[in-house]
């Protein structure tokens, strides 16, 4: 025992020396990590599908269940041009992307969250406007992401996909060409903020890529090549099987990457060639749906085994789905609401809502918000027992953007048509009591 004491003392000196050497390094790494913490709050909706990236509003939100042109409208603001991007909300500001065909501009707009007053309008690109694409697509379909210090926007410009960072006061900070892009139906992949990175993707017949850019200067940190196929989905970064996974459907495969390094975690054949909606997960399985060339909804085990757990021929091509308490919810493009048991794919119920759906689902507590193209928002219960419609509300008559719910308010981008004239509006919907 006495012989071990000198060894223990020597070992302690080694540990102390190691700490003296590595301690500053560890501290620097911690400081670097802390510098990349995102300045967003529970009352924000900082990127596509919200803080949790899956369409689930933060707990405790109590938005109104009834609204109209005259009921529970806090404010409305005119939106120039056309775009399908959903509102992005951080702090006291709201950000939108829009495009003006006549001026050939693609722009970032900023509004005051409390009043709806336009604070600034920055033209990110002028000229080089893409004329091709589906009649329902727009040149500003990608939702903006915000890290609390900068906003990030994806646009097409002169046949390229370009990511731009803008300061909160409307100053262009940097711009990075990510890849060439050959338009088929359009482009709408939204950026995803992760740690020190902003991650973007673009799939087209010119060749696809997923790329991670440094949020501070736009330098490409890593990139991952994709097939030369058209596809439209946004990257989803979700906590699955005990780790963060960057998930993409489409191009005839399901793909999982490490969002920090771009390393491929797993990839399996499946999905369809073209998808629009983003992947969702229950923590073990990942779920995706596509619409061309076949109708398909599928569930894949996200542990690298490549096991497809179940699939069916339901087509939810454009809207993104929702997962809640062991069940998967969708509204198809054709307006059929459905609920499946997530683990098995067994159908719990389905019900016709009506209309055409482009917007994705949003979950607020146990209530699902689903807005159709005709401007009608259906609110129904997230319950597998049966379909339970809570409310229907009409606002606008041409709607593509997904509603955003935060701070007890709903923010909805809609358009109204008057003959050939089309005007977009951004609405803040809130309880009229106290407003």
Question: Would you mind describing this structure in some detail?
Answer:
This protein is mainly beta and 435 residues long. It has a single domain, classed as Methylamine Dehydrogenase, Chain H (7 Propeller). Helix content is 7%, strand content 44%. The chain has one helix at residues 4-35; strands at residues 73-79, 88-90, 93-100, 105-112, 118-126, 145-146, 150-157, 160-167, 172-180, 192-194, 197-202, 208-214, 220-226, 236-240, 243-250, 253-257, 264-269, 280-281, 285-290, 296-301, 308-312, 322-324, 327-331, 336-341, 347-352, 362-364, 367-371, 376-381, 389-394, 404-406, 409-418, 421-429. Strand 16 (253-257) and strand 17 form a beta hairpin. The radius of gyration is 23 Å and the shape is globular. The model is unreliable at 1-36 (pLDDT under 50).
């Amino acid at each position: 025992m006495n012989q071990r004491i000198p060894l223990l003392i020597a070992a302690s000196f080694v540990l102390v020396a190691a700490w003296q050497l590595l301690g500053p390094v560890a501290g620097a790494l911690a400081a670097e990590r802390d510098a990349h913490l995102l300045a967003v709050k529970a009352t924000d909706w900082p990127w596509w599908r919200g803080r949790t990236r899956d369409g689930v509003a933060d707990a405790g939100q109590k938005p109104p269940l009834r609204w109209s042109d005259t009921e529970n409208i806090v404010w409305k603001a005119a939106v120039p041009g056309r775009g399908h991007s959903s509102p992005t909300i951080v702090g006291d500001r709201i950000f939108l992307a829009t495009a003006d065909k006549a001026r050939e501009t693609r722009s970032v707009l900023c509004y005051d969250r409390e009043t709806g007053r336009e604070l600034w309008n920055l033209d990110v690109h002028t000229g080089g406007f893409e004329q091709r694409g589906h009649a329902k697509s727009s040149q500003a379909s990608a939702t903006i992401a915000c890290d609390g210090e900068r906003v990030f926007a994806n646009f097409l410009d002169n046949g390229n996909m370009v990511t731009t960072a803008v300061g909160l006061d409307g100053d262009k900070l940097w711009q990075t060409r990510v890849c060439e892009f050959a338009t088929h139906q359009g482009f709408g992949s939204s950026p995803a903020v992760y740690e020190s990175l902003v991650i973007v993707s673009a799939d087209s017949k010119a060749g696809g890529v997923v790329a991670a850019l440094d949020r501070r200067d736009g330098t490409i940190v890593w990139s991952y090549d994709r097939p030369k196929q058209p596809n439209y989905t946004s990257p989803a970064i979700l906590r699955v099987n005990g780790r963060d996974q960057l998930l993409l459907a489409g191009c005839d495969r399901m793909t999982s990457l490490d969002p920090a390094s771009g390393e491929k975690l797993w990839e399996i054949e499946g999905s369809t060639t073209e998808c629009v909606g983003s992947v969702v997960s229950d923590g073990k399985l990942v779920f995706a749906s596509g619409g061309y060339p076949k109708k398909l909804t599928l569930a894949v085990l996200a542990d690298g085994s490549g096991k497809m757990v179940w699939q069916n021929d339901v087509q939810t091509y454009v809207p993104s789905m929702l997962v809640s308490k062991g069940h998967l919810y969708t509204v198809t493009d054709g307006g059929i609401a459905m609920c499946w048991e997530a683990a098995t794919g067994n159908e719990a119920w389905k019900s016709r809502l009506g209309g055409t759906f482009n917007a994705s689902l949003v979950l607020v507590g146990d209530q699902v918000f689903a807005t159709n193209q005709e401007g009608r928002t259906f609110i129904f219960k997230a319950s597998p027992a049966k379909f339970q419609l809570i409310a229907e509300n009409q606002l606008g008559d041409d709607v593509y953007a997904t509603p955003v719910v935060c701070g007890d308010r709903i923010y909805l981008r809609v358009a109204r048509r008057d003959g050939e004239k089309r005007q977009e509006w951004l609405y803040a919907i809130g309880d009229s009591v106290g407003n």
